From TrEMBL, chains A, B:
PROSITE patterns: HTH_GNTR. This is GntR family transcriptional regulator / MocR family aminotransferase. GO terms for molecular function: DNA binding; DNA-binding transcription factor activity; pyridoxal phosphate binding; transaminase activity. It comes from the Bacteria. Residues 16-84 form the HTH gntR-type domain. Keywords: Aminotransferase, DNA-binding, Pyridoxal phosphate, Transcription, Transcription regulation, Transferase. In the C-terminal section; belongs to the class-I pyridoxal-phosphate-dependent aminotransferase family. Signal peptide: none annotated. CDD domains: AAT_like, WHTH_GntR. Pfam families: Aminotran_1_2, GntR. Gene3D superfamilies: Type I PLP-dependent aspartate aminotransferase-like (Major domain), Winged helix-like DNA-binding domain superfamily/Winged helix DNA-binding domain. The lineage of its organism: Bacteria, Pseudomonadati, Bacteroidota, Cytophagia, Cytophagales.
């Protein structure tokens, strides 16, 4: 009996048609070397009889193999495995070994230094109570209105262009809607040519870093500062310099001292609500920092991730609105306004920067999701976003006050904090509390909360947490802080 | 009269409330230096009268300025611009100069070498006739079914988790749907742990390059090869080595010769339908290439951008399905199946590679659009995608045949081509035709078509075009080829 007959197992319940099962089995054994090159194969009639199938099915399999170049038919001689396949030593298959197992590891070298482990956020079950880092309450997202716009975009003739490839800067429609919106709300005298749409603020930080930073370049960040930005700079090979952050924001004197000593390429600031400490950079420091930037010609990334959420007064205009020379790269996001999973953000910068960064972005992911982006543009255009922001700011304001009172009443001297002027979290420093233990205890009682390690730097352990209040209703806050108290 | 009174212009038709207009005007002039530090400001009553507004409005503006830290109230003395603002020299405003103009250029240095201009695709008006590079017909996209799934995802309680932050690998649901789908259709014996969801194939190429390539590393590509991949390798500092592509695909002998001479880090292949020439790599070359990879320990990027679209026989199983050692990074996309603007693709690789690349992706854009990704998963899960692919493959097959016949009948000896086994375009080499002129002439007659420069390399002018047939209905093909003939 021909070897081939033994090698084919048909599964009549499988989705794949029988002729394809035969085809794949034969390919498998040719590549394994079980069927050697030049081997003569049994005739289709013989194989069909043996397998109990119609001869046409077997012929279809042979046709398929021939079309794919695995076997050849030599007139008056028969059907053969093609001769010009390279030598393959048959691999012995041990009993029980699964055939065609996928390799568990790469066989080539991966430079481990390139892999800086980012804290890959654990999955947050929306049904569990959680004090997060300061995320919005997605239950408030204007889902139905968004769906309506999305449907309109997807169906409309005029929007069909968003199905095809677009530009890496984002759809004109969104850029032209966003420019006046940002101009009106943030005093940015920009046009669409200064706008690039990104997938969230993180892409803005990444692109700017890739464009500006060569290995060894000096980047200044706060002590403490937003961890993901710091990792992004390190990944690009930057030398990280840290300057203190006090209750007026990042220390500009310290920045000046550093600039006098060495060439600084980039400074990363979060003036509106510093991450993690939530402090707002004072107007005088803002102006001095811009002045230093012009003098020492460094770039400033102004990360304004939650501009819209300010309660003490109106939001303070971004530094980018004061920039007269072109030092500031202004980065924002809509993720905090709609939902974190909606990956739409923007870079605002002088036109030459936007053009350069668009080329970089092309190689990264070509372009954004134009349909999604067009739907979001519509939400801004028709005023839904404006109204939504107004509504949630009022609600978050109330939630901040309630939460601050709770922390004070319930946790007393175990925590110190300053009520922040904006944002979605309170920066609380704990006293005589082991945060790792507290986090573990709380989890057992049904409350997810971090252990603060995210905010520590190489030199400092803050024993502090960003306590997100925005995503919790008042009653949920009561329960969460109660568990927190019991977990200390 | 106080200087301040002259500086404020109210626009009663503006959206911004009056008190905010005053606030912003005063900030503007403080930062310009027009209002010097320590300057005493007029009382609110006086200002209100001068401006013709209610005194409460003026008080609101002063409160706002105080809250933002621009002015201070000294009891029994009055209201002042804060003294501890740094010295600012007032900038003379020339007549006619627009106040607050946004800088036209950056004031810091951008390394021009980092900016490799990608051909930023011109906008394709969907209402104009176009012979594109080989894109799908978006008119056939199952828009309504997609919208239904998207709505379900957005509304469903169970899916609320997709509103919050997720993982950089993509939603579990999509990875677990895609793994068996790819296993069934492409013989990839993988699990979800081998899958990472990306924003299209380009992100897969970019991430792999960033992870593996250090400046100076050697990367082999075909002559010709897909331009965007080559640019991505160059951007990472790779040394590009080119080997010929003939009618059996990339020349594996030439690859072996190179490997003997120098350390090769990565080889980029498109075995199923080579870009741009559409040729399919033969089985024997595939096996030899895998053998070389194991011997010389290089990585292979297998770009399989249009696997599903094969007409000659069933699609040929990817090289990744034969990979026994872990040399192949398999990259695919769903953009060609649904619509180019739907940015969902995937990387299939050994688990250690997926983990490493997920960290890199974190810094790039944090994660994908989980809601969109979940909706697409549902389309695979409920069989819509399978049926859609079957339907369009039949249609594209017909369109390929019609288009090939047209080219032969209408353009005769001005073009040579081989009918491709799959894909969405025909690679046509033109004779005695100036493609630049042809492209310009065609545009005047209402047909958009490239001039072929995209496919040329440093050393070769192919005078050829990828002629996309898939997005044109038969009558549109007739008209397009007619215009083409008239434009030569």
């Amino acid at each position: 009996m021909h070897v081939l007959k033994d090698l084919i197992q048909l599964d009549r319940k499988a989705d794949a048609p029988v002729y394809l099962q035969i085809t794949n089995a034969i390919i498998h054994h040719i590549r394994r070397g079980t069927l050697r090159r030049g081997l003569k194969l049994p005739g289709s009639r013989e194989m069909a009889e043996h397998l109990g199938i119609h001869r046409k099915t077997m012929l279809a399999a042979y046709d398929e193999l021939m079309a794919q170049g695995w076997i050849e038919m030599i007139p008056r001689k028969g059907t053969f495995v093609v001769r010009d396949l390279p030598d393959i030593k048959p691999k012995k298959i041990k009993p029980g070994e699964e055939i065609g197992q996928y390799p568990g590891k790469t066989f080539f070298h991966i430079d481990e230094k390139k892999v800086i482990p980012f804290p890959v956020g654990q999955f947050r079950d929306p049904n569990l109570l959680a004090i997060n880092d300061g995320f919005p309450d997605t239950r408030l997202a204007p889902t139905e209105l968004f769906l309506r716009e999305f449907r309109t975009v997807a169906r409309s003739r005029g929007f069909k262009k968003y199905y095809q490839y677009g530009t890496p800067k984002g759809p004109e429609y969104l850029r032209e809607t966003l420019a006046p919106f940002l101009s009106d709300t943030r005093g940015l005298p920009i046009t669409a040519s200064n706008v690039m749409i990104t997938k969230g603020a993180q892409m803005g930080i990444y692109l700017t870093t890739q464009l500006l930073i060569k290995p060894g370049d000096a980047v200044i960040v706060g002590e403490p500062s937003y961890f993901a930005a710091t990792l992004t700079f390190r990944q690009a090979g930057a030398t990280i310099l840290r300057v203190p952050v006090d209750d007026q924001g990042i220390d500009v004197d310290a920045i000046e001292t550093l600039c006098k000593k060495k060439k600084v390429k980039l400074i990363y600031v979060i003036p509106h609500h510093h991450h993690p400490t939530t402090v707002t950079l004072t107007p005088e420091r803002r102006i001095r920092l811009l002045d230093l930037a012009a003098r020492y010609r460094f770039a400033i990334i102004e990360d304004d991730y939650d501009y819209d959420f300010h309660y003490a007064s109106n939001p303070i205009l971004p530094m980018a609105s004061l920039d007269q020379h072109g030092n500031v790269i202004y980065i924002g996001t809509l993720s905090k306004t709609l939902a974190p999973s909606v990956r739409v953000g923007f870079i605002i910068a002088p036109e030459n920067f936007i053009d350069a960064v668009a080329h970089l972005r092309r190689s990264m992911d070509w372009q954004g999701d134009s349909m999604m982006e067009a739907a979001i543009a519509a939400l801004y255009h028709n005023g839904v976003m404006g109204r939504h922001i107004k509504k949630v700011v009022k609600l978050y304001h109330e939630r901040r006050d309630h939460f601050a009172a709770l922390l004070k009443d319930q946790l007393h001297d175990r925590i110190t904090f300053k009520v922040p002027d904006g944002g979605m979290s309170i920066w609380g420093t704990f006293h005589d509390v082991d945060l790792k233990k507290m986090s573990a205890h709380a989890a057992k009682k049904g409350l997810l909360i971090g252990d603060g390690s995210l905010y520590n730097t190489h030199t400092k352990n803050y024993n502090a947490l960003r306590l997100g209040f925005a995503s919790l209703q008042l009653k949920e806050q009561d329960r969460a802080v109660e568990i927190l108290r019991e977990s200390m």
